[in-house]
Amino acid sequence: MDYEAEMKGVARPRFGWALTGSGHFFKESLEIMRTLPNLDVFVSKAAAEVIRMYKQELDLSADVRIFKDTTASAAPVGMFYYGVYHTLIMAPATSNTVAKCVAGISDNLATNVFAQAGKCRVPAIVFACDTAPEMDTEAPKGMVKVYPRRIDLENTEKLKTFEATTVVESVADLKSAVAARLEWLKTQKTSSSS
Q: Is the model's pLDDT at 32 over the cut of 90?
């Protein structure tokens, strides 16, 4: 991938948003995505399935770039090396994705961007799905009750200990964490123009 050509005329630094195969507050996550400036979206293969199952559209603004999980090496992650991103958001994040992140496994686009964000010291916000012993979540045909396993809850707790990683447990917390990054971004623009 030619990163210079890819970035020509594209505002940066940017938000990166990784979608995994979770339907937990998926629609609400899409709504937050639609409010962000300078956004790139990383769509894992599982996320592409969820988008179809939940009958959603990635109807985002024209300046949003969408990268799909089509290469074995997750080639788009290379942009993290060049300072393209100031923040990675992974929302919503399945228990499978959280477990892989905790174990250091990066075998799909979502887990790869998380690993590269960490290696490049880009702060990450992760909206973990499995955060309580009993939860209501939206399935394609309506609300259902789920009971996350102890290992799922333990992995969420472990992820909270990762450097430069904020794990959120609700849509309100996700909005607050994103708002905090937007405020941080304003301070960066102000200090660089002084």
A: yes
Predicted confidence (pLDDT) per residue in 37-60, tens digit: 999 999 988 888 887 776 777 778
CATH architecture for the domain at 3-181 = 3-Layer(aba) Sandwich (3.40)
Are residues 60 and 41 in contact, defined by beta-carbon separation less than 8 angstroms?
Answer: yes
171: which 2 tokens?
Answer: 């849509």
Please say if the pLDDT value at position 26 is more than 70.
yes
What is the bridge-based pairing of β-strands 85-93 and 14-19? parallel
Q: Determine how β-strand 142-146 pairs with β-strand 135-139.
A: antiparallel
What proportions of the chain, in percent to the nearest 5, are helix, strand and coil?
A: 45, 20, 35
Cα separation, 121 vs 44, in Å, equals 22
Query: Domain map of the chain by residue range?
Result: 3-181
What is the distance between the alpha carbons of residues 39 and 86, in angstroms, rounded to a whole number? 11
Q: Tokens for 110? A: 């979502």
The pTM of the full predicted model, rounded to 2 decimals, is 0.89
